[in-house]
């Protein structure tokens, strides 16, 4: 590997990190340096941007320790057989960059991942050393997210969690068959075993901190990422896999990354990338399960039964409503929260406002209009004190009415 200065390494390894989407920062532990000790804070507004649960934007230095790798995953631009320019940071260089960027107010934290060099354990040791040095040698109190390596010794992964705010382990592909075919060096059981161990450590740490003030903190959560479109997995397969991961490992987030063709690509990969709208629809489906109380089978029911794919021209919530028109219209003055959440165009906040308001008054269509972006899109799906969509509800095809040129927003207020 040619000798490069830190700036050249940064150009290569920051660009190489752009393929990893799982850099959220929710669940951070509140830390600051107001007592005059240490440096940094996970609080307040201040390269990569992530968002905390309260909506704050957090700027992260997002880099790879190295883009060299002993694995040869077909879909990865940094695979062993790829013809790309290689670079590698030392742990001390990453620490220095993080502190330097923080002092200049460029960032509030670090997102660090890596290719596999020498061995999984050796690489994991380097990642842990970066986080350890920042926390213990420099008393850095900003946000740290480490991408852990499932093949590494469980104790190393545990050490990562002791220093990081969040850890993530990528499942890579939605199906075991796809992983076996495109990433022969990786093992689905090992990946899931590592995720299970992290979940256990998180639960144990929470229990310990409730019992003992001096108990060491552990990462607040874990996340993962799936590549979409590199194998034959349908949207139904992906939704089912995501739901399983949420249930079994209590993940904070599952991220979806549309496959992008890479230079000198393997012949087993698709020649073109999937539509980016497919990635967007999967995120919307994920939102339905996490915040709208949809069961996975309900979300899958919005997909085309023949192909297992979600429609690209309308969002999955509207697609579900059109497929199950017998569930509508919903009476906004009487329906339970579960039914109101299934009305296209009604978001969580709007439903909460409806439930609160109707305790004191009967709601009319004008009242609902004040809570939404476009009440015209809602009318086929609701009943109010002065509104009943008799004609629209009986129409053979409601889609042209509710899904015109401008797409109905799933996340309306």
Short description:
With 413 residues, this protein is α/β, with parallel strands linked by helices. The chain has helices at 6-16, 91-103, 120-137, 154-163, 176-182, 188-211, 235-249, 276-291, 296-300, 316-323, 337-340, 348-357, 365-369, 375-378, 390-394, 399-402, and strands spanning 48-51, 57-64, 109-113, 143-147, 166-168, 221-228, 253-258, 330-331, 382-383.
Total number of beta strands = 9
N-to-C order of helices and strands? HEEHEHEHEHHEHEHHHEHHHHEHH
Distance between the termini: 53 Å
**Major sheet, described briefly?**
7 strands, mixed
The helix content is: 25-40%
Principal-axis shape: globular
Kindly report the average pLDDT value: 86
> Unreliable runs, pLDDT <50, ≥5 residues?
25-46
% residues in beta strands: 5-15%
Provide the structure class: alpha/beta
Number of helices: 16
Radius of gyration, whole Å? 24 Å
Strand order of the largest sheet: 1-2-3-4-5-6-7
């Amino acid at each position: 590997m040619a000798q490069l200065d830190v700036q050249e390494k940064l150009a290569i390894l920051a660009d190489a990190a752009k393929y990893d989407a799982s850099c959220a920062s929710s669940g951070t532990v509140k830390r600051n340096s107001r007592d005059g000790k240490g440096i940094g804070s996970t609080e307040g507004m201040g390269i990569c941007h992530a968002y905390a649960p309260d909506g704050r934007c957090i700027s992260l230095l997002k880099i790879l320790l190295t883009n060299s790798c002993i694995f040869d995953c077909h879909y990865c631009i940094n695979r062993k057989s790829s013809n790309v320019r290689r670079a590698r940071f030392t742990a001390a260089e990453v620490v220095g960059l993080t502190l330097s960027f923080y002092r200049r107010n460029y960032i509030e934290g670090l997102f660090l991942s890596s290719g596999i060099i020498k061995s999984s354990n050796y690489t994991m040791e380097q990642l842990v050393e970066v986080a350890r040095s920042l926390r213990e040698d420099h008393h850095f109190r900003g946000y740290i997210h480490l991408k852990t390596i499932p093949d590494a010794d469980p104790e190393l992964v545990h050490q990562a969690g002791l220093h990081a705010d969040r850890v993530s382990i990528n499942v890579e592909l939605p199906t075991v068959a796809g992983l076996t075919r495109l990433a022969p060096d990786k093992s689905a059981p090992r990946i899931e075993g590592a995720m299970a161990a992290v979940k256990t450590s998180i639960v144990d740490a929470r229990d310990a901190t409730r019992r003992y003030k001096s108990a060491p903190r552990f990462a607040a959560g874990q996340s993962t990422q799936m590549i979409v479109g590199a194998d034959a997995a349908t949207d139904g397969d992906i939704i089912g896999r995501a739901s399983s991961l949420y249930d079994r490992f209590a993940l904070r987030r599952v991220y979806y990354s549309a496959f992008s063709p890479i230079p000198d690509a393997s012949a087993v990969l698709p020649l073109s990338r999937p539509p980016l709208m497919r990635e967007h629809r999967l995120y919307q489906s994920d939102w339905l399960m996490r915040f709208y109380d949809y069961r996975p089978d309900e979300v899958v029911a919005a997909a085309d039964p023949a192909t297992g794919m979600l429609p690209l021209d309308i969002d999955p919530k509207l697609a579900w409503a059109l497929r199950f028109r017998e569930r509508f219209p919903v009476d906004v003055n009487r329906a339970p929260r579960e039914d109101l959440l299934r009305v296209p165009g009604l978001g969580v906040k709007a439903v909460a406002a409806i439930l609160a308001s109707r305790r004191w008054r009967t709601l009319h269509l004008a009242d609902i209009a004040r809570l939404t972006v476009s009440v015209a899109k809602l009318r086929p799906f609701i009943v109010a004190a002065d509104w009943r969509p008799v004609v629209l509800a009986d129409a053979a095809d409601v889609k042209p009415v509710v899904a015109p040129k401008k797409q109905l927003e799933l996340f309306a207020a």
